[in-house]
Amino acid sequence: MLLNERQMHLFEHWPEPGVDDDKKRGFFDQVRRLNSSYPGGLVSYIQNAKKLLADSKAGKNPYDGFTPSVPSGEVLTFGNDNFVSLEAAGVKEARNAAFVLVAGGLGERLGYKGIKVALPRETTTGKCFLQHYIESILSLQEASCKMVGDGCHTKIPFVIMTSDDTNALTIKLLESNSYFGMEPSQVKILKQEKVACLADNDARLALDPNDKYKIQTKPHGHGDVHSLLYSSGLLEQWKSEERKWVLFFQDTNGLLFNAIPSALGVSATKGYNVNSLAVPRKAKEAIGGITKLTHVDGRTMVINVEYNQLDPLLRATGHPDGDANCETGYSPYPGNINQLILELGPYIEELKKTHGAISEFVNPKYTDSTKTAFKSSTRLECMMQDYPKTLPPSAKVGFTVMDTWLAYAPVKNNPEDAAKVPKGNPYHSATSGEMAIYRANSLILRKAGAQIADPVVDTFNEQEVEVWPRITWSPRWGLTFKDIKEKVRGNSSISQRSALVINGRNIFLEGLLLNGTLIVNAVDEAEVKFTGPVQNKGWTIQHVDYKDTSEKEEIRIRGFKFEKVEQLEVNYTEPGKHSLSA
Ligand SMILES: O=c1ccn([C@@H]2O[C@H](COP(=O)(O)OP(=O)(O)O[C@H]3O[C@H](CO)[C@H](O)[C@H](O)[C@H]3O)[C@@H](O)[C@H]2O)c(=O)[nH]1
After folding, report:
1. ipTM score assigned to the predicted complex
2. Residues with CB under 6 A from ligand 1
């Protein structure tokens, strides 16, 4: 097969039989793996590569014949009646959902040496992203089941896509923390394989520079999730369990679950086959733009145009300023945050046709303008949000826009690069990712009627951010706005220098006046009321320089740590009614 595909160079340097036979066998083992993990096998891979490399050399625009325009979608306002009723609809549907986290990426831009899902989402509690995601799914499971009564024992499946770069550490994180309370059988790990690298425009496979019996490989992208789900058999199993929705999400968005209930509510009430979550997008921000594309032949689709392609597409279609903000101060194209909600039935039908193959692209870096040689080997890549590209025009493809403060704060950039982000654009750093949690929680409590002090502006790792009171809660305390509103009563207030950790279900703020640090832990059956002042020296914020290697990497990349001077920590381990008042 390789010889038919003109890959004889792979064997040219092979010595006679009897020499290096084990290594030669190892070579074929790898070929077998590469062949079986790509839809259509290596022959398809090589042929697809030849075509895409030829298009790239010819400078062919992948959007040739398409004109972009701004699509219309659902725009939600946090906390209004519509939002609250969509959240209720979403929680009800959640028991019919399955969650899929794509976590195979190395996070090269962040440069963190561990896996990103093990990073603290915030350092007030130190809980990592994976713990927060699992606790959020478990809370949804419980709340959703409650809505249908006693007969419901559903366990929401949770799939994590890993890669060789993240697999072992992800499993270790889960196992050493008892799956953060989830039943191990609820979690499925699907590991994506890398794909063969391409050495030239003829799609000759590249050999590993360190091992001539190995084909060099690189990641194929998050789009692999669709073929992996298809071949795993999980989709059919979910269908037989009468599940209806598959929700995809990424490794480091600590705000995501603020948006899940209402977005799922939109999918359910609008009957969307595909629903992408979006936020207002700043021009040139590194998130794709959701765009309506109309072809000269009349076809239209609503699709993510990736951030590096939006500017050239706009310039080529009569927008000389390219990717620019409009009078609102934002790009007119909503920003894709890659949280996708797919309706399971139509998803399975589509994958039966495609076997999960997703439209691919190639991005070679040429040595010069003749485009005959590459600076380094390249490979085909694919993105999970390109799934709708193959759908028929009858498919119901929509999107839901929410405020950035509520729904999106990823951790992607290292401190040095974050500091260079143009002023007014989001940093997408560990610093901004954590501060965004406090900001969102403060704004949510304000909307629920509490008085939350204004933020102060401070600079960490050369990034200017708003520092709000450090308020966090476990998902079982506040899954939806309605839950939170019911637990914030009376005239509660929280000062700027305060930190509040709520870890329990039935904790009520009824005129709490917090000026310091308060940590509350309570079992579900304990009902705890807080009234009156809580005052102590609290936790102060210390600046940390990212180059200071005496600090842990998790701390250095955010540029601050807490000095825990004084706090009030209360634990309620017994059922019953309790109150704490000064
Ligand atoms: O081979 C891969 C590559 C990435 N990932 C995972 O895919 C997710 C996204 O990866 P990146 O954070 O590197 O993605 P980008 O920032 O390049 O962009 C993506 O996320 C943005 C929002 O965060 C926009 O939505 C954009 O359109 C979308 O392509 C991560 O969870 C990552 O772990 C994999 O699982 N396998």
Report:
1. 0.98
2. 102-105, 161, 163, 219-222, 250-251, 286-288, 304, 306, 336-338, 383, 385, 410, 412
